[in-house]
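User: quick one
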Amino acid sequence: MSEIKLEENIDILPRGKYLQIAVEIEALDNLIIRSTSSEEVLTFHYEKLGNRFIIPWRKIKGRLRRYVMEKQRSLGIFEECHLKDGLCLQCPSCFMFGATGETNKNADPEYKSNVNNSYNLASRILGETFISVRTVKEILDYTANAVDEKTFTTGQALMTKIFVPAGEKFRGVITLRDPTPEIVSIIIDNLQRMARLGAETRDWGKVKTTILGFIYSDREEISSMDLLESMPKRLESDVSKLKLPPVDKAYKKLAVSVQKMLKDEGLIKKQLYSE
Ligand SMILES: [Zn+2]
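Assistant: Done. Structure below.
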């Protein structure tokens, strides 16, 4: 069994390494996908695949980030970092999912005062639309005016609802840029814990997430489409080849390395988290 050697340490500069994880998400209940924005597409007609349900990457990324932050908080690491413009710009979650000076307006004063000058962290987790495994025969969607529950008026935003039957499976690829074993351990752990989709419970519902395999390469080799046409042969399924550390240790080590890196780059004043 050959071991796969990931980058040992994080670096501010890109190194051109990609770990692509092929993921399957199964709807455990009948799901209602709700969209209040008219340009958000929830089904799509593909030339080769026909009509499919789709899950926008934004929805998956948002949910995954919440899981990563909850776990991080439970370990006492940057507990006050939060999504409502309160990103700290210096914790494992901000480092992996990205954060900008715009998203830390309401950050905890201790975190905010530790940042030397405004800087942005680019997301190291990239994804694309997840596509349903089966063709949708008939798309049961309708666009309606959202009814105000108090006044029964319909002056609000247009709302699209789509019904996805229980058992429907979606496939997609999540790409980690220049990952260390710690980053992979955290993402895999949280993907496996992801039991619900959607930022609000009214979008989506219970799901089961399975990792189908991965590819480590110097380029992005696979896309969601590839997972639907025929499963790529190069897909590795033995996660033990990655020699991942336990998730708790991974968070702690990554928290120290992110703080050290930002301090060395002169971006933060002092290391707020150390071993
Ligand atoms: Zn943070």
